[in-house]
Amino acid sequence: MKKIFGYLTSALLVGILLVGCVSQGGSTSGSGKEQQKSNNDKLKIAVVPKLIGIPYFNASEEGVMNAGKELDVDVIYTGPTEADAAQQVKVIEDLISQNVDVIAVAPNDAASLTPVLKKAKDQGIIVMDWDTPADQSLVELSVHQIDDEAYGRHIAKSLIENMGTEEGEIAIVTGGLSASNLNTWIDAAKKELEESYPGIKLVTDKIATDEKQQVAYQKTLDLVKSYPNLKGVMAFSTPAPLGVAQAIQEKGLQDKIAVVGTALPTDSAPYLEDGSLDVAILWEPDKLGYLTVALAKSLAEEKKPENGQNIEKVGEIEVWEDGKTVIMGPPTDFTKENAGDYDF
């Protein structure tokens, strides 16, 4: 009996050791993210706007949430309450702690986000940007609404057309001074003016409004008081054109000062109607949100987008030779005549 008991004890010990080896091998063979996937097959995609609570990013959120439902992925749409880089860093830190699969961010200040995006990437999270470029050494895809150069030039041409003259004083009103996309559009617009319209004079440096309509309104009142011969204003960021138009409307300057800007059609309608805003030039932000999630899902599934690829609910996209830059499509001019055709 002692001998039989000894055999049984030895067999039991071997079994325990084997189980221990299998268990240990299982814990080290896959990452924590892979183990999480076994418990929840859905991808977790986080989309971070510059800020939440303004119409443009509300419309983007609608596209993001629709994509989450239709593409069967978990989406998180979260961002700061102000256009502040420090707040955005905190948001991304929280998303890293949630172990999301993809973070797509529209930076308020690209340089400020580089350390936290590097941290995300080092932890195996796919990093993308959308709406506004981030550090290109960190992102796997950079999702653009339009061709930035063509867009900025188009805005400048539209201003001149609505001014009805190729000579005179103009001003530029913007959102935040550090916003990469706004600065790129402004630079392209200025280039178009310098190359094609030498009679146009920019009266002051670009005027920052912190992505707030009320600030744009007040600064435009100051602007028209300081420059009584002003003939045109280009406004960049979706709240800025509304604030500029509000001031022009209040002062009854619709026939004297032309205003064009990057605004949503629904918000622009009251100003387009009376000419205080001549044209709003943008794209469909809900489609941009949808496209961002669709491309994030493809990346997580190790599929890269292709030039000319048709994305359902969006249309054909353009992919540049770098394989990283994605252009959603051309901009849309929203006017008094067509603004009512859109619901965003």
UniProtKB/TrEMBL annotation:
PROSITE patterns: PROKAR_LIPOPROTEIN (PS51257). Residues 1-25 form the signal peptide. It comes from the Bacteria. One of its GO terms (molecular function) is carbohydrate binding. The keyword Signal applies. Residues 45-304 form the Periplasmic binding protein domain. Its main location: other. Gene3D superfamilies: 3.40.50.2300. GO terms for cellular component: outer membrane-bounded periplasmic space. Keywords: Signal. It is found in: Cell envelope. The keyword Acetylation does not apply. Belongs to the bacterial solute-binding protein 2 family. This is Autoinducer 2 ABC transporter substrate-binding protein. It comes from Lederbergia citrea. The lineage of its organism: Bacteria, Bacillati, Bacillota, Bacilli, Bacillales.
